[in-house]
Amino acid sequence: MAITSLIKLLLEKQNIPYSTITAPGRTASGQWLTRTVAMENLATLELLEDEAGLVLPIFPASRVLNLDRLNRLLHRHLAPMDPDRRAALLAACESATPETVGGLCNPQIIVDVMLSDQDYIHFLSPDNSGLIRFDAAHVQLLADHLLIGSSISDPRGEDIPPPTASGEIPRLDLRTAVKRLDRLPPMPDLAARILRMRSDPDTTVAQLSEVVAEDPALAAHVVRYANSAFFGQSGKIDSIEDAVFRVLGFEGVVNLALGLALAGHCAMPANGPLGRERFWIHATYTATLAQRLAEAVPRELNVKPGTAYLAGLLHDLGYMVLHQLFPSEFFWLTKVATARPEVPLRQLEHQLLGVEHTELGELLMKAWKMPGEVTAVVRHHHDMDYRGDHLHYVRIVLLADRLLKAHDLSDADSEELPPALLEALGLEEEPVLTLTDEVLTQDQALKEIVAALCA
After folding, report:
1. Res 362 pLDDT > 80
2. What's this model's pTM, rounded to 2 decimal places?
């Protein structure tokens, strides 16, 4: 039995759609293959095992598996399966039904990074009569334990590279890579200056205005936001000083300016569920709704609306870290999220990466020495059970995310509004829903900010 029978059975077991391309003769000749699919698009696999179980690496057919590197990456002692045992296992799989094959053979699957830019994955059919083809985004469904993001193969005919140096980070072990990160995107200079002013009680409005005015686009965003219908301000706001004294206050302006100065330097890809526009729409609406919720909670909770805005605007910046430092993993996450929009992003992160954007975001906030309230929100904004410092800010952004989920403007795990969450914030459901509607209907200023951030 051909080893590709196992892929076919796994596809059927998981109800993953696939198609077959039949060769004109009895077998798929090399000439037919090269005319039908580029060799880098044709995948192959090996069946390996050690005392911890089975591993099924998938890599381009134009390359050879680097078993030594794979073992180092996984901290395993894998070896090709004994031919008799392999034949017996494949025969058992062949006679199994899609419902029972998982009990016979449920390997850990490793996908070579060289396949990450393919829209479809192709395998030779088990009888060599053609090709099996399925959407690359569905590879995540093949197994409960799947890893991506590393090169586990080498070009044919080339010498195997030397062992990985002790100081290098195995890309498959993303959690280890995150723990050992020694570089993060630097904080923009203007944002760093605003952050220092935020922490200095002697900073004057004139000094803040002077620094913000150094970036005319940033100053225009702050003034435009202060003029928005959210605040019902009579008369036109035409300066940073006016925005401070008449509408937002010092704390509101400094947090808005800091958030926009940071956000404007955070590059994201153009398209997809984590593309620039969708990312900043979510961030901007969450920030604005968080600010409105902070204004509505009881005064004794001591929640500052400007800080809630800043935390809401930056709460998903972990995706930016993932995109910049782990582009292959980000690519796979985007590919799978596009194919499976019904699955929460955090669940896909667990399955594909083993880490969450919240962990990466926390690292960035600590490296930038951001306020504790913002760091707590970035790390815990999905965590209903969080009980640490700055709890009210975490709850407010979590609530804003859930409220926006019902309007497809959030990656929250649920749109449910637990009564205990509302009660803890001193809020009631109907007024909260009304606040959300106000944010959604008076959104011209938000759209302009999103457009600027996406430029």
Report:
1. yes
2. 0.73
